């Protein structure tokens, strides 16, 4: 098992009482609620937490992209990843991901990802996403063309990375007389690609295709849904005539570790529930605007989301396996049990969430890295050796 430290960089300084009348912190929350000094302090803190991931032994550190929201202060993961590339030496840097359909000129992303990959000497993991529905409200992009623009932008970027002669691109959404990316990526033929998703059937089928075999990441879901979608990915690979490797599967989940189970739940409760019920909350029409996904996928995702509609307590989230919270022994055992069922290679652990303060984040990161990760690696290695 490989561990990636994932961060959302939430604006945890927001006055939740002052914004209680707003239905969501996405799209329409006035930015008068943002304080520049608090923002500066949070950026410094969060960047240091990610950099610390290298010395703590994580295999990767990961950032992502969201717009017009207190949920995450990374409208440009390129900026964040560039800073991390200059401040680390060995750890992989994952952008999970760049929302390529939102761009009218995706070649800028091809250039920027290639720059980061070269500066970091091949440590970049590229992630491509369509962006959640809220981003389409923010950018004014028609969600009906989301899949089309995603596929065409992806094809253009991959070709730009792998062709060594200038070429012309005349597509439905993008047209370029000259495509000739300088620099080329350090990794050849191109950086590794991971695809985060909420379970779209179209995304699973596309990522699993033999032409791509991209690593599929299920994000922030009850464990029953994680099992369903990772199995769907495996089944899709099988329908294509090959067996998915564990390296093609990943899971992103929030985690909190303290000295005891009782202490962990007491310390994390308010901050997790702020994350889940205030920062993540948005109306379904904002999450899945008309045309954003197919009717069948819409039904499946809506069905999964129905399980977690409304406010969710920490206790319920733990029961549903969408949050792991407890002593090092409890978290280790629960994750080991999950791995035996899911057989994923990549665990993306989000150890800061919502309003969780620096001192609690530090403690949880230390306990997870020192007392959970080594044991989990041993358990997985021993189990795989026994199977072999």
TrEMBL record:
It comes from the Bacteria. It holds the Pfam family Bac_luciferase. Residues 52-344 form the Luciferase-like domain. GO terms for molecular function: monooxygenase activity; oxidoreductase activity, acting on paired donors, with incorporation or reduction of molecular oxygen. Keywords: Monooxygenase, Oxidoreductase. One of its GO terms (cellular component) is cytosol. The keyword Oxidoreductase applies. This is Monooxygenase. The lineage of its organism: Bacteria, Pseudomonadati, Pseudomonadota, Gammaproteobacteria, Cellvibrionales.
């Amino acid at each position: 098992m490989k561990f990636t430290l994932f961060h959302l960089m939430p604006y945890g300084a927001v006055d939740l009482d002052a914004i209680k009348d707003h239905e969501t912190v996405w799209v329409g929350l006035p930015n008068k609620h943002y304080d520049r000094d608090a923002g500066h302090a949070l950026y410094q803190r969060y960047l240091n937490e990610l950099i610390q991931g290298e010395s703590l032994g994580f295999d990767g550190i990961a950032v992502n992209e969201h717009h017009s929201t207190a949920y995450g202060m990374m409208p440009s993961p390129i900026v964040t990843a560039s800073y991390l590339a200059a401040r680390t030496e060995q750890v992989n840097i994952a952008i999970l991901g760049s929302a390529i359909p939102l761009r009218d000129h995706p070649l800028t992303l091809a250039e920027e990802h290639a720059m980061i990959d070269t500066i970091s000497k091949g440590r970049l993991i590229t992630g491509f996403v369509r962006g959640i529905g809220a981003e389409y409200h923010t950018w004014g992009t028609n969600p009906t063309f989301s899949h089309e623009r995603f596929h065409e932008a992806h094809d253009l970027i991959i070709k730009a990375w792998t062709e060594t002669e200038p070429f012309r691109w005349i597509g439905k959404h993008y047209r370029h007389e000259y495509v000739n990316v300088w620099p080329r990526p350090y990794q050849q033929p191109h950086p590794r690609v991971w695809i985060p998703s909420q379970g779209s059937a179209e995304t699973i089928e596309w990522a699993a295709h033999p032409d791509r075999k991209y690593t599929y990441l299920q994000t922030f879901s009850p464990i029953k849904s994680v099992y369903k979608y990772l199995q769907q990915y495996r089944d899709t690979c099988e329908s294509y005539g090959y067996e998915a490797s564990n390296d093609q599967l990943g899971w992103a989940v929030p985690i909190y570790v303290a000295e005891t189970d009782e202490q962990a739940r007491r310390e994390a409760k308010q901050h997790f529930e702020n994350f889940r019920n205030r920062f993540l909350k948005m109306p379904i029409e904002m999450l899945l605007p008309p045309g954003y996904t197919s009717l069948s996928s819409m039904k499946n995702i809506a069905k999964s989301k129905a399980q977690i509609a409304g406010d969710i307590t920490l206790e319920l989230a733990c029961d549903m396996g969408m949050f792991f919270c407890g002593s090092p022994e409890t978290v280790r055992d629960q994750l080991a049990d999950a791995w035996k069922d899911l057989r994923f290679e990549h665990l993306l652990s989000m150890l800061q969430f919502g309003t969780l303060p620096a001192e609690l984040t530090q403690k949880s990161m230390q306990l997870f890295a020192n007392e959970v990760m080594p044991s989990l690696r041993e358990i997985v290695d021993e189990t795989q050796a026994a199977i072999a």
